[in-house]
Amino acid sequence: MRRKMLLAMATLILAGNALAAAPETKGDPAKGKPIAETVCAACHGPDGNSAAATYPALAGQNPHYLYSQLQAFKKGERKEPTMLGMTATLSDDDMRNLAAYFSQQKPKDREAADKAQMPLGARIYRVGNAASHVPACMACHGPAGKGLPDQFPRLGSQHAAYVAKQLADFKAGTTRKNSIMADIASRMTDAEMKAVAEYISGLR
Fold this sequence. Notes:
The protein has 204 residues and is an all-alpha fold. The chain has two domains: 2-20 and 109-201, Cytochrome c-like domain (Cytochrome Bc1 Complex, Chain D, domain 2); 29-103, Cytochrome c-like domain (Cytochrome Bc1 Complex, Chain D, domain 2, Orthogonal Bundle), CATH 1.10.760. Helix content is 56%, strand content 0%. The chain contains ten helices and no strands. The longest helix has 20 residues, at 2-21. It is globular.
C-alpha cells in the first residue's frame, strides 16, 4: 500500500510541475470549424469523432494538448508523415482555432470490445503495478479519463487500438518523445498495455 501511495504521489508531483509550465491556449472555435470540416474530417470526422481506430478521436480533447501536438507534428518532433503534411500549411492561429473547436465537441461514448481485459485494465488504470513501478494512469488522466486541463490529454472514449499503439510507440521511443510516458510504458507488459487500452475506451 505504501509503495502504491508513493507511486501516485510521484506522478502527481510530475503533473503539477508540467501544469505550472503549460502556457495558456486560446482560439476561436468558429474559425476552427471550417478547417476541421475541410482538412481534418476525412480521418477524424467533422466533429472529431473518428470512425476508424487508426485515427484518434479528438472531440472533447484538452485544447492545449491538441495545440501542442499539432505543433509537434509540424516541427517533426512527433513523427507521422500524414500529419506532417496536413499541418504544413496550418498557421499558429489555425492550430489554436482547431484546438478550440475540437475541444468543444461532444465525445462519442464507446465500450470496451474485449470485456475479459477489464479487470487487469481497471487495476492498472486505478492503482498501477507496484511491483514494476507503474503508477496509476488516473493520477494524471483522472478517474473518468478526462485528463488534467492544459496538460494531460483526455483518454476516455478513445479507440482502444489507438491507445495501445501510442503506449507501444512511447515504449519504443521512435515516433513519440515524452520522458514520463516513455518511462512508464517501458515498465508495462504488452498484456497490460492491451488491457488498460480496453478499459480506457469505455471511460466517460
